[in-house]
Amino acid sequence: MEKVSDNRQSVTSVTMDCKGQKLNLKREVGLVGAVSLIAGTMIGSGIFMSPQSVLFNISSPGASLVVWACCGLLAVLASLCYAELGTIGTLIPESGGDFIYILRICGPFPAFFTAYNYVLLARTTSNTAVSISIAQYALAPFYADCHPPQLMVKCAAAAALLVASILNSLSVRLVIRIQVVFLVAKVGSLLVIVIGGLVAVIQDSSVLEGNLKVENAFEGTQYSVSALGMAFYHGLWSFAGWYNLNYVIEELKKPEVNLPRAVLITMSMVTVLYLLVNVSYFVVLTPRELITSSAVAVTWGNKVLGDWGWIMSVAAALSAFGSLNASFFSGGRVCFVAAREGHMPDILAMAHVHRLTPSPALIFTTIISLVVLIPGDFESIVNFISFTAWFFRGITLSGLLYLKIKKPELHRPYKVPIVIPILILIASVGLVLAPIVDSPQIEYLYVTLFIFSGVLVYVPFIHYKLCPGLLKKVTIFLQLFLEVAPAEKNL
Q: What angle do CA 92, 345, 117 make, to 5 degrees?
């Protein structure tokens, strides 16, 4: 498996032991690497794609900024809860995030559904949504007055998925270098937007009267439960990645120290940056321009930078690709850990013996992402990801509350007041119910049925451990063909 490094040293997250007989994990991620992993995933397509969706659902600039601030606060508090779970080393020292927490606290049955949802739905559809945003921004300069054809968008998105997968399969060192370069591009492009908005105000203070006038900033706000839920879905999509460090706890140096520090540093920086970027959008663009834009950063760039507006399209595409790269970089962890625990085929718990990359998990994830890409569109994908993700986060937070109440004697180098997981649990329940209270859609029923269809897999293959002889033969063939071997825990 792969992981992030600090500026001093690249990562080799799966290495041979001294006898050369086993593959095991190695702790190489320091504080700088931890911050890079979280920020590299969070700052991606969301801040360039979600502002118009948040505004469309909530219908006023003032309420939109409030939603962004609340999303930042919610993500900060949730990440602090996960930081406590990640530092309970005596009980849950492994990587794997929600899957491993639910497995250790609630048992294998609910844990399987977590992995089933994550591997087949959440992570793959997330990769698909990011690839679509990359395609839209990459094609935007060529279709300045209209939306690009869907076929071209899908083809470009497929190309982005394949490139990210190939890079992650070939070399950890190369991926790390690319991630550093793209992280600089992400932060630089957002700072350009922030500074551009400030310059626009200095040059013409009347723009504030038109777009962000205090008296009418909240005019037309939609207060329905479903509208608020959808607005929060798209806002929180931009903060997706705050939980990524929990997927690689086995590779993190001093997790009891670096995990909470990395979370606080990254979340504070990103929340402030996102708010300033949204203010800049509203300063330069009218609400109608923002909602109707196919690529808001490009529309902003055309108004502020003129003939150089295409630079924002390139910057946004690079930023989104950096997020996709980081998503592939850490996303195979749940698949890897679930397979290691016997919840997925054995081949997915293996790493390449020479390149030391999780190529089976990456190939599997890429195939599912390409399948999801065929019928998918950005907005619907984000809605369904958020619906399922917060369902399982609610289960994880319930587990944290259980540990706080029933096992207070556990050593906790870092802990949060019990009121914080209670508030986040309430919020997660609200986020799951919000889209189906006012205007229920049949698609959410389909997603729910898909998740629980996992029982058809769990009962025969996980609980009773039935393994067709053909699967064993396929595993042996793939292990030889892909040159992979099992990797063990690093505890």
A: 65
Largest separation between any pair of C-alpha atoms in the chain: 73
Nearest to residue 256, comparing CAs of 396, 97, 415? 415
Q: What is the mean pLDDT of each run of 10 residues along the chain (491 residues)?
A: 36 41 62 80 79 86 90 91 82 79 88 85 82 85 78 91 90 74 82 87 63 68 82 86 81 82 89 91 84 78 80 84 82 80 86 80 89 73 72 89 88 88 90 74 78 86 78 86 77 59
Question: Structure tokens of 117?
Answer: 């949802």
| Helix (H/G/I), strand (E/B), else coil: 43 | coil
Neighbouring residues of 389: CB distance < 8 A, sequence distance ≥ 6 = 122
Q: Which helix (H) or strand (E) holds 100?
A: helix 98-106
Residues 6+ apart with CB under 8 A from 330: 2, 3, 4, 37, 41, 244, 247, 248
**Whole-number Å distance between alpha carbons of 9 and 29:** 9
Q: Which residues contact 357 (CB under 8 A, 6 or more apart)?
A: 1, 2, 14, 168, 169, 170, 171, 172, 351
What was the pLDDT predicted at 208? 55
Q: What are phi and psi of 90, to 5 degrees?
A: -70, -25
Please give the pLDDT value at position 13: 42
Q: Provide the β-strand partners of residue 350.
A: 486
Q: Which two tokens stand for residue 237?
A: 């999509």
Per DSSP, which regions of 238-353 are E strands?
350-352
Sheet holding 14-16, edge to edge: 14-16, 23-25, 484-488, 350-352
Separation of alpha carbons 180 and 325, rounded Å: 11
DSSP of 152-171: HHHHHHHHHHHHHHHHHHH-
Question: How distant, in Å, are the alpha carbons of 101, 319, 322, 354, 364 from that of 178?
Answer: 31, 11, 8, 21, 23
> How many whole angstroms separate alpha carbon 12 and alpha carbon 480?
22
Q: Tokens 């949802």 — which residue? A: 117
For residues 468 and 471, what is the distance between their CA atoms, to the nearest angstrom?
A: 5
Question: Residue 9 has what pLDDT?
Answer: 35
Distance CA 176, CA 40 (A): 11
| Cβ within 8 Å of residue 131, ≥6 positions away | 157, 158, 160, 161, 324, 369, 373
CA 124, CA 144: separation in Å to the nearest integer? 30
Distance CA 218, CA 59 (A): 8
Q: What is the pLDDT of residue 175?
A: 75
Residue type for position 19: K
Residues 59/221, Cβ–Cβ less than 8 Å = yes
Helix (H, G, I), strand (E, B) or coil at 1: coil
Taking the model in full, what pTM does it have?
Answer: 0.81
Residue reference for tokens 């502002």: 51
How far apart are the C-alpha atoms of 476 and 463, rounded to whole Å?
A: 23
